[in-house]
Model the fold of this input.
Amino acid sequence: MMHSFSCYVRMASAMARSQMQYRVNFLTQILSMVITYSGQFIALFWLTQRFNTVGGWRFEEIILLYALAILAWGVCVSAFFGLQAFEDIVRKGTFDRALLRPMNPLLHVLGSNSPISGVGQFVFSIGAFIIAIIQAGVPMTWVKLVYLVLTALGGGLILGSAMIGVATLTFWTVRSYVFYWSLVYPARQLINYPISIYHWGLRLVLTFVFPFAFVNYFPAHVLLDRVAELNYPVLAWLTPLVGVAAVAVAYRAWTWGARYYTGTGS
Amino acid sequence: MRALYAFVAQGMRQQMAYKVEGFIGIGSTIIWLTLFVGIWSALLSGDPAALQAQLIYVIGMRTLSELNLVPTWELGEKFRQGDVALELIKPVSLPVRTMAGYFGAALFRTIRALPVFVLGWILLRLPAPAWDRTLLFALSAIFSHLITSSGLIALSMIALWTVQFDEADNLWSTLVILFSGQLVPLHYLPDWAANVARVLPFSGIYYTPSAILSGTLQGGALVQALALQAGWAFILCAVLGLMWRAGGRKLTIQGG
Done:
């Protein structure tokens, strides 16, 4: 496994170097991402200007939720977003290659994903996070800062396990784009708002089945000193653990699904 | 006209062929509807009348977003790979054919999602829609589709000059988020932003039809908004036509 990881690191850093070769393209992509997320930021600002709070959360708190969601998404984009295009690999039969290489097939596929493709997300979300923290006037401590990093990684793993899920379904359906854009993408939008505004059934699903609430809603309580408001305060601290568990489950599903892969041709 | 109809029908049939996509599409419709109903129920919980109008608005808006899904990234691929060269020898021009095909596919997707919206309407206990408003909504929805489809195809034509249009596409989506009324209807925007949004084409995509359905737009304001929307649909279609003619002359096929 260590060998596979070191192969992955080499492949991914080669991808990063190749992406950096197109400098203007790389910079416009970052700028374009920042503009896109800022549009949503302004729309949220207008919404809270008119209504003051969304389900009891003020503008800066909503922005903190949004910043955490985009930060984790940046991690996911950097490591897992290539799986969106997994159907091309399955359809063309090039997954054969990953199976034959002397390394873990999933890491082989992930190795062709540029690890710096989430830079636009990082630039935006760190900026938005700083604005939110200053506006909210909550003190930043070392504990919170460390937990922020762990949350970003954990949240990235939670979203990443959804991408692994998408790729797993591809083994049977030979479709991945549609699973991402029709299910994962809208589900990601659900957590841009405090999940307390939704029906309890949906809240349970977002906590226990597809644990997206751990990406931002629960950890935001730590960063905003609101942990006491949760019925089960421990949930606010679980994001890194949930991330690891989600990837473990998704990885099991993936290895099981991979057995149903049939190459093209003879 | 016959040719146009054939392309619309072809677009519908193509969409029908994707069965997996059909089932997933229904799931997608449900998630989006839940999201917007959740937000607005939280925001307007103290004002039942405004909430009712807003929920009707949301159902209208989600119907339109099924109708406004235009897969122009396929066109981008065509330009990149040089397949567009073949387009120049076909008797019906690329924009006309593409728009008719997209309309067919969009119409099928909308019809497929309709049961979800009807069920949502019933579950949310909304009053039966007035037939005149519904008809005007349908008319306005067609203009809405024309604006999106011609606007996005025109943007993808930029690729004829630069072989890259993703950034222009992202800029369009950002303007849609801000000024179309998708997330925040114009009457809930700050005054200055609402005034800007009213004259831009984007409000024709979601706000105008949805506000007609919810009864927020009435009388003179309704006629004005509808006329403006039709005007934008016409202008964008004209721009698309001009771009295609100019682009056809300019076109360089990679490797050709």
Summary: Chain B has twelve helices and no strands. The interface with chain A takes residues 18, 20-21, 24-25, 27-28, 31-32, 34-35, 38-39, 41-43, 164, 166-167, 170-171, 173-175, 177-178, 183-184, 188-190, 193 of chain B (CB under 8 Å).
